[in-house]
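pinging the channel bc i need a second pair of eyes. not urgent but kinda urgent?? the chain im working w is below, pasted from the shared doc
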Amino acid sequence: MTKVFHFDSPRERYQCDAAVLWCFDNRFELAFRKFLQRTGVIKIDPIKVAGGAKCLASPDNDSERQYVLEQIRKSIRLHNTRRVILKVHSDCGAYGGLEQFGGDPVREAEHHAEELHRAAATLRAAIPGLKIEGYYVDFEGVWEEELKP
């Protein structure tokens, strides 16, 4: 192999601030990372899949759900993760985009709030004892959905 870039990275294992389940749509990445940093979430185990929390709430097939749950279990085992952040976003292609909601952003946001609750319930049933937070991101900001404990 040929070294093409040099950097120094810490060798010590770390405790993860949160496993973050989010969509791989890059339009919201910078804003959401800044939000996470502003709230003190620095060391994350990112789990990026199409639809983000959709994979727990309403997956296209059960293997999607099982994959995500296994990634969260690995984060817990390897990095002592105790917190999971669930994220969904506006105009998500995995949901059919804003068009799926008749172009109505309020209807879309309400649907995504319900999805966050379903995802959290699935996660709680599969892995009890985690702190779970849910966020909806649109083109104007980050919105927290209050999830039942």
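so Helices lie at 29-38, 54-57, 62-79, 105-126. and The radius of gyration is 16 Å. — does that match what u expected or am i reading it wrong
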